[in-house]
Specification:
Elements (H helix, E strand, L loop, with lengths): L1 E3 H4 L9 H10 L3 E7 L5 E13 L6 E6 L5 E6 L9 E14 L6 E6 L3 E3 L2 E3 L2 E2 L34 H4 L4 E6 L10 H12 L21 E4 L7 E8 L8 H9 L7 H13 L3 E5 L7 E6 L5 E3 L5 E3 L5 E4 L4 E4 L3 E2 L12 E7 L2 H11 L4 H8 L3 H17 L4 E10 L7 E6 H8 L5 H10 L5 E3 L2 E6 L9 H12 L21 H15 L3 E2 L5 E2 L1 H6 L24 E2 L4 H13 L5 E11 L10 E11 L5 H15 L4 E4 L5 E11 L2 E9 L1 H6 L6 E7 H6 L16 E10 L4 H9 L5 E10 L8 E10 L8 H19 L2 E2 L2
Parallel strand pairs: 12-15, 26-29
Antiparallel strand pairs: 1-11, 2-11, 3-4, 3-6, 4-5, 6-7, 6-10, 8-9, 13-21, 13-22, 14-21, 15-18, 16-17, 18-19, 19-20, 23-25, 24-25, 27-28, 29-30, 30-34, 31-32, 32-33, 33-34, 35-37, 35-38, 36-37
Helix pairs in contact: 5-6, 6-9, 7-8, 10-12, 11-12, 13-16
Amino acid sequence: MIAPLSWLREYVDIDCTPQELEEKLFSCGFEVENLEEVGARISRVVVGLVTSCEPIEGTHLHLCEVDCGSEGKFQICCGADNVETGKKFPTALVGATVCETNKERTEIVGTATIQAGKLRGYDSFGMLCSGMELGLNEDLYPGAGYNGLLVLPDDAIPGADVKPIVGLDDWLFDIAITANRPDCQGIYGIAREVAAVLGKEMKPLPVSYREEKTEPHTLQVEVEAPQYCPRYEAHAVKDVKIAPSPAWLRRRLSLVGVSAISNMVDITNYVMLELGQPMHAFDRRDLAGDRIVVRTAKEGEKLVTLDEQELTLSESNLLICDGEKPVGLAGIMGGLNSEIKDTTTAVVFEAAKFARDNIRRSARALGKRTDASAHFEKGTDEYTVELAMQRALHLTEELGAGTVTDECAGKNTGNSIEKRPLTVSLARVNGVLGIKVPGEDVCRILANLDMEPELEGDALRLKIPAYREDMESYQDVAEEVIRFYGYEHIVPSFLKSAEVTSGSLNERQRRELKLKETLAGGGMYEAIHYSFFSPADLKLFRYPEGSEALRAIRILNPISEELSLMRTVLSPSMANAVMRNQKAGNLSGRLFELAKVFIPKSLPLTDYPEERAHLAFAFFGKEESFFTLKGALDLAAESLHVKFRYEASTEPFTHPYQTAGVYVGEVKVGYLGKLAYDIAGELNLRTDAYLAELDLDTIESLPHEPVYFTPLPKFPEVQRDLALVMDKAISCEQVVNLIQGSSPLIREVKLFDVYEGAPIPPTKKSLAFTLTFRPEEKAFTPEELDKLTQEILEKLKTSCDIALRV
């Protein structure tokens, strides 16, 4: 939020420099993201009194003699139509910097340095300035909007710096407000913190006003959705006179980037900026039945908002209605049908607390983010609802914008807006900090925060202001104390139960790290995704009704609908990763992800979900195939010290003839397969994609063969290639198992070719394998290898009628 120094000084006597205040705010937990002087672009611009002004014949220029006090007297050529003798104007001396405007003088485009020059043969030493050339507009300083020179007050002293006169010596603090401090969303909330950190008295907020009795009282408020609106206040103002706001109010709005509109609208904006409480003003004539009804929208109900956009609403949206129709989208924007107009003569002010989660969901779903919704999303409190209404009515009276009546109406759920008691142990507060803060310092700090501390022995009794909803326990008190006592007092120390260790990974972490390193060494890249996915992903992957994948946990406040479900599988995320890579021009790649999936024990949740480790793969590109992905799984199996076997299988999102289930023994632990063509088409993939997913927790839970160290062979390994012809019904796995079972000297059997077609009979296929033999006691002789090979061929012939291809 933007906090002008001049506005803060309205409530606190600030006697330090802006830079010192920035440091003090940071020390008490408020980061100033940017500190900027309003007139940072302006230098060496002083008050100049025009002592003579003669027109230059044949031009629109005037030759002026300008008295700049102690700076001297200068001859300046000026083309403005309002330059005249005896008037005072901002004068940029030679070497001054001012704002550079475009040719049409409608916007600032940069900074310009003034130099001496000649105009129509006359020397000119400086420049008389307009408001825009000083970075001003009509709201920041009256008269600055005129397309001519800015006229300065008669009492301005020639030669004086122009910045303090026109308010360019002000400073803007851009402060980051943390999520736990919604009470600091307004200038007054920041001023409370400034007063506390400087040890100053906080000036009271003017909220007094007079009410005129009126009869009859017909204004009614009904809240049909108290869970979304725990407090709603409405107050009527009559004899409204719509007019421009005074200069001081327009200036403050402009400093924080808000345009002035009219007095009644400006009051609501001013209160929001000052107190952090959004407000709204309705034209009372447009409230049918003189009623305000807070309810949820009907499915498909329409509303045209102040920006003239028609919204189609759902039952999750909260509406402000009159006796007949919607007149505003609660907490976001008012309706066009009840806006303040030039002819408005009576208004109803609204101030309310709306549930932050409902406003957040509505704003996102409708694409309607406003300053009001941003405040409600961070949170407002019921105390400030009442305070904001009083402040708005006070300003209405102060500005002469209308007559405050005694007609008001409201509803609340009974929550108190008085201070609430909180008693904590001083020892526990100090225990959190790890140091002993003297009791008198604790009381001083908390008294500055208006918590009325009383210390009796170890008992610290407080009265917490209603706007500090974040204060609930001794930990919160400790945080308040150390913010102002100073973090530099904290002494580093170990927790009581802590001990120094060398640090290490546990057994599971070591296994996972080894697996990742193995896969990365195999040419794969690790992918890391959010733990969430979209309902659209589940729909795209066509999981059948009752599938465990569909039993996903919905997030209460998701970042977006695309990240609204906790992942139950990894494959959709991997498919989307392929899509994003190909959109970026990466048409081939090998990805893996090792991450948790979240399986609920029951829905709705009654306990924490089961978190299971899964390993997923995505291979894509012209060089990839079912078998290259199978090779990656075999590599993972080797790292996990298990042996996978594969059986033909089906998945709802894969090719029916290029899918296999992955088994360890008789237990299915995953799948691999080619992504179905129609799904690949919906993802706009330009090459084939192959996916696999393994349940690592299930794999680790299965019995494992002991792992023994095997020394490197003393003699060289030998390889032989065999091309075998067999029936198409025989699987590769069957052949591999037969070959490996033929001799303990066979270390590895690797498939390197598959062939179908002439001269192979139509019912047959050819598989080619590389066999690696590892000798034990001595090196192989050619005769021994021939004998081993012949024994393998005989076993294959006998078992499955598999013959050597010739």
